[in-house]
Amino acid sequence: MIDVRDLHKVYRQTVAVAGLTFRVEPGEILGLLGPNGAGKTTTMRAVAGIIPPTHGTISVDGHDVVADPVPAKRALAYVPDDPKLFDALTVREHLAFIASAYQVADFEARAARLIDEFELGEHRDKLGQELSRGMRQKVAICCAYLHAPRAILVDEPLTGLDPRGIRTMKESLRERAAAGAAVVISSHLLALIEDLCSRMLIIHQGQPLFSGTMAQARVACGGAASDSSLEDVFFRVTEGASAVVTPARTP
Length: 251
What we know:
Blueprint: E1 2-11, E2 14-24, E3 29-33, H1 40-47, E4 55-60, E5 63-64, H2 69-74, E6 76-79, H3 91-102, H4 107-117, H5 133-145, E7 151-155, H6 163-178, E8 182-186, H7 190-196, E9 199-204, E10 207-212, H8 214-220, H9 230-239
Parallel strand pairs: 3-8, 3-9, 6-7, 7-8
Antiparallel strand pairs: 1-2, 1-4, 4-5, 9-10
Helix pairs in contact: 3-5
């Protein structure tokens, strides 16, 4: 569903991503991990077609994001870490706008289900500028889900959410993956990645350090204990970042 091959992104003299290759199959949830400045957001923005790669190829649902961008973008949804809403549109008007952009014919029923799922009913007529940070996050994810994307990219999905909102967000991501979507989550909350993700990709300075499951990560870290947390594994991998761990799976 998501196929990234030899991705490079250079901003003037700064190398943000250097030689990243990975694939996310339908039904998988991939956790994208790395320290600040590792290239996670750049990678997600490139997959979403917001910024062009300097080198390499990216395809979503079989469509090249650069050469064939419209069908690629129709198949995906991207929620950034600080989603921006339109100040002068209500929650319902945001969903109507997205439905128009993606030509979702039956959006009223879908929008109603999403508003109910994320407990936005009493806020549906509020303007974007009137919403709290957590409410804006919920509206952004509702807009992302509206056209039933086959690839979902979410950067720090739990920002601003209360405990019930966190549970709803996590359950929604599991449900979309179970329905066949390929999901990529970027987060510094390692417990979230450990809880949700079937695989993880750890990058540092734009380069891959590890790709695989938690069990494979423990083996790659020199036989870490079977009960080692993702936090333990993460620091063992990133603190030895000079030696790249060969990905456990390649396209």
